[in-house]
Amino acid sequence: MEENKLIKYKGGIVKSVSTAITVANKLLALVEPQLIPYRKKDKWGFCTPDKKIVIDCHYDQTGSSNEGLHFVYLNNKTGFIDSAGNLKVECIYEMANRPQNKLIAVSQNGLYGLIDFDGHKIVDFKFTKIGHFCNGRASVQYENKYGFIDTNGIIIIPPVYDSVTNFSHGLTPVKLKDRYGFINVNGETVIDFNFLGAKGFDDDVSYSNILALNVRYGFIDLTGKIRIEPKYIHGRNFSEGVAIVQTLENGLYGFIDKDGSTIIDFKYKYAKSFNQNIAGVKLKDKWGFINKEDQNLGNFIYENIHEGFEENRCGVELKGKWGFLDEKCNVIIPCIYDYVGSFESGIAYVKIEQKRGFINKDGFQFWED
After folding, report:
1. Could you tell me if 122 and 153 are in contact, meaning their C-beta atoms sit under 8 angstroms apart?
2. What letter would DSSP give residue 270?
3. What's the average model confidence in pLDDT over 314-338?
4. How far is CA 289 from CA 90, 132, 278, 282, 366, in A?
5. Is 26 helix (H, G, I), strand (E, B) or coil?
6. 3-state class of 302 per DSSP?
7. To which H or E segment does residue 23 belong?
8. Is 0.90 topped by the overall pTM?
9. Could you give the number of structural domains in the chain?
10. What angle (nearest 5°) sits at the alpha carbon of residue 332, between those of residues 352 and 362?
């Protein structure tokens, strides 16, 4: 007998992702459409993808959604509502992180604490900053030092470090005095503090600038073993099996593989990481796009570009205005905007002259003046 299929609802599309779900749950997914921030003159609410207003426009700003809560801004304060428009967290906070793990980091009087989805305080307001949770840990800043809390708000790694980033592969680089090392989620040192700089692991490889005569970038693995000798002026983490590096010989950028072999020659003034087999590169004073065979995917005509393709869209600047390309580097949204954010959950924040609001991936605007 064929098993029931688990479906995932996103942007009006139901996708099969695993097994065992009832027909009732499938129908439930269909009757809960995405809520999109909608602006009507100078007030904000939420609408469905077909522009039907479902939460009246009486907020000063509305924004992103996560875990069933939606950001709202009223009288210079932040709060959250649910999908029915019920106020779950009062608009009394100065700043708020995205809801995550049924918790929200919010600030009052310049200090951050944690609340639950009903607005109840979980962690006192004592931190200068609280980061996003990753590998069950969120960074916190306390008295100019950094440490980590768990999803219960308990300090797991005391704030003793000068700098930290998010955990990846169970490790994070931390700075102590003038050197970087790597710790695990329990705060134990896994890779000694031997580096002048370090970034988190991607694709099981991290780059770290190591003192080797002069400051140069190389790559280490999860054990701290040097995988690629530190000989580059600059570098970025591996993405889709390749990394951007800047060579000492001519100061230009190219791409290497995990063995350190050059796969794209050092001829670009700057470069972005590969995303969906496409990378933005700068040749002379203009940006364009290439694939991993170094084939041009269109003309080098853009003044600036986004970091990469998010949800098959990449922001590009042409003659001082911004628009979007699709994954084939075709113009899908004309360059008419003064500012564009990246796409997330099918929408992006944009500005055009005095107008601002959200658009979908086809350029449909969710506002009225």
Report:
1. yes
2. E
3. 97
4. 45, 31, 7, 8, 30
5. helix
6. strand
7. helix 23-30
8. no
9. 2
10. 75
